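Example for tutorial group B:
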């Protein structure tokens, strides 16, 4: 069998498409695994937790986010499309009465930014924001 340039391009395209489709569920399951570690399998509900992020980020290297979590003792932030989904963990105590934080994160591509908060009563809350990234920040 003789390979032509066209055959090689088709095989390469199919291989890249297969690899790209295989990575997305794996990254999402990494996020789910990390959330399960934090919650210990407990049910995660909705509440006053909020994530504020831009709808469109021109550059994924510095995406500003704000977390507001009244009554939370800890908030973990995940980027479900990044190779390493765990982004940051904030711990709140009596010296931070607002239970809010802001930072800049790096996003590889368009994805959800997910926050999981552990409340003072031991329950968990979840909030997320979708950010469209035009230029990836994790080598993308």
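The residue assignment follows.
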């Amino acid at each position: 069998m003789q390979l032509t340039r066209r055959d090689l391009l088709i095989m390469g395209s199919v291989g890249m498409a297969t690899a790209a489709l295989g990575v997305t569920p794996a990254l999402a399951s990494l996020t789910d695994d990390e959330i399960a570690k934090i919650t210990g399998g407990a049910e995660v509900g909705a509440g006053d937790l909020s994530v504020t992020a831009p709808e469109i980020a021109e550059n994924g290297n510095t995406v500003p986010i704000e977390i507001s979590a009244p009554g939370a003792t800890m908030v973990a932030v995940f980027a479900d499309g990044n190779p390493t989904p765990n982004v940051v963990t904030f711990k709140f105590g009596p010296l931070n009465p607002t239970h809010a934080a802001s930072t800049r994160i790096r996003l590889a591509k368009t994805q959800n930014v997910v926050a999981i908060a552990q409340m003072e009563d031991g329950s968990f809350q979840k909030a997320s924001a979708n950010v469209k990234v035009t230029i990836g920040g994790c080598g993308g």
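The chain has a mean pLDDT of 84. Compare this with the pattern of hydrophobic and polar residues in the output above.
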